[in-house]
Write a structure and sequence with these properties.
With 343 residues, the chain is α/β, with parallel strands linked by helices. Helices cover 40% and strands 17% of the residues. A seven-stranded parallel β-sheet has the order 3-2-1-4-5-6-11, sandwiched between helices. The protein has a three-stranded mixed β-sheet with strand order 12-9-14. The chain has a two-stranded parallel sheet with strand order 7-10. The radius of gyration is 19 Å and the shape is globular. The chain starts with a strand and ends in a 12-residue tail after the last helix. The chain binds UDP-4-deoxy-4-formamido-beta-L-arabinopyranose. The site of UDP-4-deoxy-4-formamido-beta-L-arabinopyranose has 19 residues, from helix 7 and strand 8.
Length: 343
């Protein structure tokens, strides 16, 4: 299939492009490079031997987006593009609502106008809000997101569900990610956040290569086995393969489908640090700090539905995730080198 991959130069998008190419699909990337780097295109080509077509474009530019859709005649869209820093969204809610929801409205309009009725949406576990129980299943109610970033994911999910209600021939797959970590085995691609990492694994990586002094663990007084936050970490290549698998209900025109993409296992912060030390034979320096606002104690998936309906399940374990993460950072101590342009 010929697939429009919005945000395809990003961490998850680029890994997904590699797996799409390996499965004989044709990804075409649209990305404004606001939080990614053109170097990624060279890395995709080095890994796969194929250089995807790339359009540098902000999806808000409806006219130019429409021209691309008329020219490329896509079979489907995988929609990754959007701002995704939870902390930043709390400080700049209007930026997140305007951007994440605004570009999705434009994308949907252009898809409809060009008869493209297949979309896989990069959603998030944050749509469940503060979990009332774990593991979370797809039929659990959508909660009140604990931050504007999560709220934008809820609004976009609702918009897509309405689209399917109005026009049942629209095939929509909502993929709810838990915590993506790790990197391609080559070490050529990986997570390269701009500025101080919000997320745990990139922060640990930067401590490991000496870019950061010490990891602060946000609270060790949660009601978990060791007091630190428990999450469902999933290898980014497993996540990418989940997107390839999600093309099945699209090709079979199954309408609206929702899947959790996680391992079904919870790992605490201290567990992760220990696994990282063991996998890479190093000692990550850490200190215990206060809890971070908006954090929940535990959050992990029940991914049985994806296994039963997509034939997909996560294969990498936590030690392999830590090994591949460090391998990327060791080979690219300053990420893709160039800081993305100022917003
Ligand atoms: C994980 C654990 C922290 C940093 C977010 C988004 C979610 C998804 C994944 C996009 C928590 C602890 C973290 C640090 C720490 N993103 N931590 N020190 O918050 O579970 O999920 O990223 O889809 O939507 O909400 O991920 O990696 O920030 O935190 O102790 O320096 O690590 O308290 O327990 P989170 P995270």
């Amino acid at each position: 299939m010929k697939i429009c991959v919005t945000g395809g130069m990003g961490y998850i998008g680029s890994h997904t492009c590699v797996e799409l190419i390996k499965n004989n699909h044709v990804p075409v990337i649209i990305d404004n490079l606001s939080n990614s780097n053109k170097e990624v295109l060279n890395r995709i080509e080095t890994i796969t031997g194929y250089r995807p077509k790339f359009y540098k474009l902000d999806l808000i530019k409806e006219e130019r987006l429409d021209k691309i859709f008329k020219k490329e005649k896509f079979d489907a869209v995988i929609h990754f593009a959007g701002l995704k820093a939870v902390g930043e969204s709390v400080k700049k809610p209007k930026l997140y609502y305007g951007n994440n929801i605004g570009i999705s409205v434009i994308l949907l309009k252009v898809m409809r106008r060009n008869g493209v009725k297949n979309i896989i949406f990069s959603s998030s576990a944050t749509v469940y809000g503060v979990p009332t129980h774990v593991p979370l299943v797809e039929t659990d109610p959508i909660g009140e997101a604990t931050n504007p970033y999560g709220q934008t994911k809820i609004e976009i999910e609702k918009m897509l569900m309405r689209e399917h209600e109005i026009d049942p021939s629209f095939n929509i797959v909502l993929l709810r990610y838990f915590n993506p970590v790790g990197a391609h085995e080559s070490g050529l691609m990986g997570e390269d956040p701009w500025g101080i990492p919000n997320n745990l694994m990139p922060y640990i990586n930067q401590v490991a290569v000496g870019r950061r002094e010490c990891l602060t663990i946000f609270g060790n007084d949660y009601p978990t086995h060791d007091g630190t936050g428990v999450r469902d970490y999933i290898h980014v290549v497993d996540l990418a393969l989940g997107h390839v698998a999600a093309l099945k209900p699209i090709q079979e025109k199954q309408g609206l489908k929702i899947y959790n993409l996680g391992t079904g296992k919870g790992t605490s912060v201290l567990d992760l640090v220990k696994a990282y030390d063991e996998a890479n034979n190093i000692q990550i320096k850490y200190q215990i700090g206060p809890r971070r606002a908006g954090d929940v104690a535990e959050n992990y998936a029940d991914a049985t539905l994806a296994k039963n309906e997509l034939g997909w399940e996560a294969k990498f374990n936590i030690v392999e995730m830590c090994r591949d993460s460090y391998n990327w950072q060791k080979k690219n101590p300053n990420g893709y080198n160039v800081e993305p342009s100022e917003k």
